[in-house]
Design a protein that fits this description.
Blueprint (H helix, E strand, L loop, with lengths): L2 H15 L2 E2 L3 E3 L2 H4 L27 E4 L8 E4 L7 E7 L2 E4 L1 H4 L8 E7 L8 E6 L11 E5 L5 E3 L1 H4 L7 E7 L8 E6 L24 E6 L2 E4 L1 H4 L9 E7 L8 E6 L6 E5 L5 E3 L1 H4 L3 E2 L5 E4 L8 E4 L7 H5 L7 H10 L5 E2 L3 E5 L5 E3 L1 H4 L7 E7 L8 E6 L8 H7 L2 H6 L4 H10 L8 E5 L5 E3 L12 E7 L8 E6 L5 E5 L6 E7 L12 E6 L2 E6 L8 E2 L4 E6 L3 E8 L4 E9 L2 E5 L5 E2 L51 E4 L8 E4 L8 E6 L2 E4 L3 H5 L8
Parallel strand pairs: 3-35, 19-22, 32-39
Antiparallel strand pairs: 1-2, 2-31, 3-4, 4-5, 5-6, 7-8, 8-9, 9-10, 11-12, 12-13, 13-14, 15-16, 16-17, 17-18, 20-21, 21-23, 23-24, 25-26, 26-27, 27-28, 29-30, 30-31, 32-36, 33-34, 33-37, 37-38, 38-40, 41-42, 42-43, 43-44
Length: about 700
Amino acid sequence: MNKYLLVIFVVFLSLSCGPKEGELFKNPPPKETAITFENTLTETDDLNILDYLYFYNGGGVSTGDINNDGLADIFFSGNMVKNKLYLNKGGLKFEDITELAGVAGNSSWNTGTVMGDVNGDGLLDIYVCAVVGINGFDGYNELFINQGNSTFVESAEEYGLDFDSFSSSATFLDYDLDGDLDIYLLNHAVHTQESFGKADLRFKRNYQTGDKLLRNENGKFIDVSEEAGIYGGVNGYGLSVAISDFNQDGYPDIYVGNDFHEDDYYYLNNGDGTFTEGIKKYFGHTTRFSMGTDVADINHDGWPDILSLDMLPEDETVLKSSEGDDNIQTQKLRIEKFGYHYQFTRNMLHLNQPGSSFAEIALYSGIAATDWSWSGLFGDYDQDGEQDLFISNGIPKRPNDLDFINFASSDQIKKKINNTKLVDQQALDMMPSAKVHNYLFKGTSDLLFEDKSGSWIVNDTLISGATAVADFDNDGDLDLVTNNINSPASLYINKTDGKNNYLKIKLKYTPLNSFGIGTKVFSYHNGVLQYKELYPVRGFQSSSEPIIHFGYGKSTKIDSLKIVWPDGQFQNLKNVNTNQTISISPENTSPFDYGSLQPLKFQIFKEVEDNLGINFTHKEDNYVDFNRQKLIPYEISDRGPATAIGDINNDGKADIFFGGSKFIPSRIFFQTDSLYTEEIIPEIYRDSIKEDVA
């Protein structure tokens, strides 16, 4: 071989065999970290995506320091494989202690996992969700109580948490502010004849599919869902849950991402043990196939914003060959007859508008299309003071492929499918793979996100699902871990190091909430506000290390930190140095005024009773532009009603003209003293063929 070619070959070989690295993250291989967990799925004739629609949703991952040695450990839950627990030994070396710990699990199909201190002893316990009762899946949700010596005892029944339902995930919160941690348990539905129908299906509770709010009563968790106003129907396809004080009144609220036709749920805490659901009131539209969710303050106003992921492909070929949004007739039917809200197949970024509703800006921000997206996690990964965004991606087979849908929905095939395994395999073979690279976006100060996929991280063909954030090497920046399907789990180790400054905060609160779940931290430096709230369950089927992390660019000092504890007390720390980890407990606290966070209201106009005699209500004619103009981006036939104000009869008083829609006459109201009186002018009344829009 030519010696120059030999040199090139050797260099290529060394590069291809070495650890993968991007500009911001590197991926140490399993042989270096000893993390060999692989969530392997084995399709069979009796169990595949045709039999179980969430076959490819993957397992979960949770991170936290289980032995209080200062290093974040990792727990993986498996679908068809046993769970694994890895102890962080330092230097990015991990030890598999699953057998010693006794956490391999006994359920057939595990899903989400969360770490939390259930019994108030200062040690992280592990709760693992399971799907039970379909496809031969048996078992129950398992709770592994930490014994303090790297061993755990399964105690779900003792705590009232041994549910045998269709669980996706769970999260801790103190919804009633009584000092202990309660649980929101997220379940998912499966397609049956009963799960399709009007939206009020959500009001009839179903044990297997309905979500559950579990109140902690002296260490025993009691189902209070119905009295608290939590939906629990057969149509609740819950895939993710996010907790935050969305309206900044001191009580934790709940956002639930539901798959398929069911709306997402937005539960506002009333402060009396009940919640009011308000997705239609506060959101103009939501994701259609809601998957992972996350919460962060992306515009520095001290109010939490919401990310919800869907499956809109960025690739045009895939986009055109995949099922997308409903046609307009189906959408109108869903909304007007069946009672659902507006949903669209793309990611949503809901910007919190204090004291008002949310503004949806994902298209503007450049993150609307990231394909088959599971987990979205905000974090200041480059530590410049702006929130960046990691999104995990991929699925072994696309069940929304139009060729597959047309094949499976044909009358001839519907008669054979599930009766002939050959037809089942033929249907599976028609689904194309969706090995889509994970996305990483750099946040900016103007709500725009820059796609750094392929530069900050290496583009790969992994199928990544549940993802968690932790500082595994204790260098101050945020690392990531993903639970992959049919591939070893991935570590994304952050290389920011000393390029930008940070602050890492560990909270020590009361024995019944030792990690300070629900604590808020407001950071002020150089006139910039950053806001974080500690709820480790984020993204999809996962929980992250219970820490609060801020990036500060080149700033070496923080003007002040305001820590607001869950009980409504707060304290201030001033002139805090960056590039350190600090531990904070309640000290020298004072009552916090949540009214100080609310926007000031200046009432300029006041609505008068009876509208001064004006009883006009516009009625739009029933015309659908899309039936005639297939490619029109939005309807233009509903631009009315036009309104004009002027002195029509020269009496010195302002009169009002309201335009009508097609075939509906316009109306005129003349001002008389302080009221208005309608007067019918024949020429105007007869002119009702066209719609008045200007």
